[in-house]
Amino acid sequence: MQGRQIVITSTNSITELGYGNSEMWSNILNGKQGFSKKYKTIAPRQTTFSGQVDRTKIKEDYFSSKEVDYLDDIAKFAVSATLDLAKEEQFFETDMFGYDPFRIGVNIGVGLFGLGKMSEASKFFSNKDYSKISYHHLASMIPNSAPAQISIKLGTKGISTSASSACTSSLIAIKQSYLEIAGGFHDMMITGGVDAPLEDVWHLGFSKLALAESQSENGCKPFSSDRNGTVSAEGAGILFLEERENALKRGANIQAEIVGFSSTSDSFHNLAMEPSAKSPIKAMKSALKMANLNPTDIDWIGSHSPGTKKGDIYESKAISEVFGEKTPPVTALKSYFGHTIGASGVNEIIAMIESAKRGMIIPTLNLTDIDEASQINHCLEVKHCNVRYILKNSFGFGGTNSSIILKINNSNLH
After folding, report:
1. For position 1, what pLDDT does the model report?
2. Which residues pair with residue 389 across a beta bridge?
3. Which of 39, 111, 191, 371 places its Cα 20 to 30 Å from the Cα of 413?
4. Which residue ranges does the chain devote to CATH 3.40.47.10?
5. Which are the contacts of 307, defined by CB distance < 8 A and separation ≥ 6?
6. DSSP classification of residue 297
7. How far apart are CA 233 and CA 311, in angstroms?
8. Distance between terminal CA atoms of the chain?
């Protein structure tokens, strides 16, 4: 496995911030946030924001009339993002880039299951409308419905699976996909993450945990002294991974190389963070070790920072421990996207790649009054510089922590 270079050759993102990378990047440049005041719930701690995908932009010809009815949004978002990317990259015209379909796998991170179809079936059951509950509800609820539908639509015949580890799901999926190629099991992996959590049961749970944003003027405000919770959002992010030599042979436009990653567990509490932050510290240090890098080699950190009171301080402590006084610029990308749960890591990676290949580091939005307990090197305005190595963190419920390091292909500078 050592010596094989695994690269990201293509990316695509679907969120409220943008349907596709171009729209997403345009909105980021304009300082737009990917959530708005249009979701009302039964939650006692009333949330005023959510990040909702514009469903009118999903191409109807991707799905049959029956699929439109029975597929959950997690499958629709993931399939749409993947098929858009496949068309852009001429995946079908080049006969799957020349790869054996049994050597192309799919691994999509999903933090939740098909919550929309679960809620729909529950309502039918409560109203005793049993005839409206279909066996398709069962198939749409399982987490691997997204990778299964991608495999069906593309005709790939390698592994089709789903990584599910709360908010770290997409980073775990990327890591597992890397290992599939590095271990010689597959030549190409379609990976990333998806989630569609905007149901009352989700908002109610977040409300009772006091994690949901409540009546804020700007929504998600990571590291800000007046932050009061995160903004739930939905979406999908997709990456094509290949071995570098194979990618170069077919003329692929390499975006970045995966050079380091690590995952750890707090082993402390299902919802609370372990106060010492030793597990996220270990994740970052181990990722650096795998990449054979020093902390000073990292040019930019994409923090997890959901905008919760304790979560942001927890991560600040970990970053300070690893990077010390020479901490590179830190950007909290959920200030743009909100929290897309299982899709958060990959969507934020895509935004960082889009920014870095333009020689830019984008700032955290709404950060005007920094919490005294989060005194790290926050990026407060656009920085124009050469970005070679980026580190992205994702942490989640159950004490799961993941860090990944990418080497940006600077020959792609726009």
Report:
1. 46
2. 407
3. 191
4. 6-249, 260-412
5. 213, 220, 221, 222, 224, 227, 228, 229, 230, 231, 332, 334, 335, 339
6. G
7. 18
8. 33
Q: What is the pLDDT of residue 143?
A: 80
Catalytic residues: 167, 304, 339
Q: Which residues contact 113 (CB under 8 A, 6 or more apart)?
A: 74, 141, 142, 143
Q: How far is CA 15 from CA 235, 309, 383, in A?
A: 4, 25, 25
Distances (CA, A) of 200 to 164, 235, 339, 412: 21, 17, 16, 43
- The CATH T-level fold of domain 6-249 is Peroxisomal Thiolase; Chain A, domain 1 (3.40.47)
Length of the chain: 414
pTM of the predicted model as reported, rounded to 2 decimal places: 0.94
Residue 309 near residue 299 (C-beta atoms within 8 A)? no
Class of domain 260-412: alpha beta
Q: What is the pLDDT of residue 135?
A: 66
Q: Token pair of 187, please?
A: 């030549």
Q: ∠ CA 122-124-129 to the nearest 5 degrees?
A: 145
Cα–chain-centroid distance for residue 351?
10
Residue partners of 3: CB distance under 8 A and separation at least 6? none
Closest CA to 252 of 89, 100, 21: 89
Whole-number pLDDT of residue 116: 73
Helical (H) or strand (E) element with 404: strand 400-408
- Give CA–CA dist 184/187, Å, rounded: 7
Q: Confidence band (pLDDT; 50, 70, 90) for 277?
A: very high
Q: What is the pLDDT of residues 325-353, one digit of tens each?
A: 999 999 999 999 999 999 999 999 999 99
Report H helices in 73-218.
Answer: 73-88, 115-126, 135-141, 145-154, 169-182, 200-208
284: burial class by Cβ within 10 Å (0-12, 13-18, 19+)?
buried
Rounded to whole angstroms, the Cα distance separating 2 from 229 reads 42
